[in-house]
Automatic annotation (TrEMBL):
This is PACR protein. InterPro entries: GPCR_2, GPCR_2-like_7TM, GPCR_2_extracell_dom_sf, GPCR_2_PACAP_1_rcpt, GPCR_2_secretin-like, GPCR_2_secretin-like_CS. It comes from Acrocephalus arundinaceus. Residues 42-321 form the G-protein coupled receptors family 2 profile domain. It is a multi-pass membrane protein. The chain crosses the membrane at residues 44-64, 76-94, 130-149, 156-176, 196-221, 268-288, 300-320. One of its GO terms (molecular function) is G protein-coupled peptide receptor activity. The gene is Adcyap1r1. Its main location: membrane. One of its GO terms (biological process) is adenylate cyclase-modulating G protein-coupled receptor signaling pathway. GO terms for cellular component: plasma membrane.
């Protein structure tokens, strides 16, 4: 809210309304012990989750960067996803350090350039994370649909989508916020119209990812249930197998058995098929609801369970990767 003071003959008057009233905070109002315990539990949960994710993702990045035989377009996409999760975890710790540095402090008073910059960085990292999850689903879908797949050209566009789109959206949001809603530390999103500049593209990527998930399942079922694979379909299978591995394959591998090709294709699809519902469905539950609705449940899903996303990604895309083992 707005706070003003009048210049009188006796000097400046007291601020009106009071800081606590303007910020919607009652100095005499105390939360129940159960609510305090709940929020402390959620914070402890996501602190453990992001710490675990940060360690596992850093280890996975070292492994993928260390061995040259693992350098290929598929793993480059995985590495970008790892980086987005690492940045997300770091941004959460920085945000907590800035907003809640003092245990008894009221962050409603904070309104500095540094604090706002931290929130811009935080939203960028979160948005980039969702877009690289979308890229993973898009990559697998393209892999199964396209017969000839120019990976380098596609990877160029993937990079633009994954890092460029969040840059544009967050920049637009920051400019609009600066001109139309420059209050507090930008950690509250009371202006719904401005918040949808960030939330809209994220929700859109999640919805498209879910559609890709359904499409991938349909394609895999059709291919794997086919009793007789013709020449064209066989070449499609072999093309997919070539793209699943970083090392080039020889021509005599066209003689691979159908069961072997199916196993390889399913192994490639397994990680992304698990990630799309795991990291998308939980967000769509609250995607179109107001920010103040189901706040407790939203905290558990987005902060508690969501903090372990990076750990699951590292396990699926690195530690359980047959090439790494």
């Amino acid at each position: 809210g707005d706070i003003s003071r009048n210049c009188t003959e006796e000097g400046w008057s007291e601020p009106f309304p009071h800081y606590y009233d303007a910020c919607g905070f009652d100095e005499n109002e105390t939360e129940s012990d159960n609510q305090d315990y709940y929020y402390l539990s959620v914070k402890a949960l996501y602190t453990v989750g992001y710490s675990t994710s940060l360690v596992s993702l850093t280890t996975a990045m070292v492994i993928l960067c260390r061995f040259r035989k693992l350098h290929c377009t598929r793993n480059f996409i995985h590495m970008n996803l790892f980086v987005s999760f690492i940045l997300r975890a770091i941004s959460v710790f920085i945000k907590d350090g800035v907003l809640y540095a003092e245990q008894d402090g009221n962050h409603c008073f904070i309104s500095t350039v540094e604090c706002k910059a931290v929130m811009v960085f935080f939203h960028y990292c979160v948005m980039s994370n969702y877009f690289w999850l979308f890229i993973e689903g898009l990559y697998l879908f393209t892999l199964l649909v396209e017969t000839f797949f120019p990976e380098r050209r596609y990877f160029y566009w993937y990079t633009i989508i994954g890092w460029g789109t969040p840059t544009i959206c967050v920049t637009v949001w920051a400019v609009l916020r600066l001109h139309f809603d420059d209050t507090g530390c930008w950690d509250m999103n009371d202006n719904t119209a401005l918040w949808w500049v960030i939330k809209g593209p994220v929700v859109g990527s999640i919805m498209i990812n879910f559609v890709l998930f359904i499409g991938i399942i349909v394609i895999l079922v059709q291919k794997l249930q086919s009793p007789d694979i013709g020449g064209n379909e066989s070449s499609i299978y072999f093309s997919c197998v070539q793209k699943c591995y970083c090392k080039p394959k020889r021509a005599n591998q066209h003689s691979c058995k159908m069961s072997e090709l199916s196993t390889i294709t399913l192994r490639l699809a397994r990680s992304t098929l698990l990630l799309i519902p795991l990291f998308g469905i939980h967000y769509t539950v609250f995607a179109f609801s107001p920010e103040n609705v189901s706040k407790r449940e939203r905290l558990v899903f987005e902060l508690g369970l969501g903090s372990f996303q990076g750990f699951v990604v590292a396990v699926l895309y690195c530690f359980l990767n047959g090439e790494v083992r």
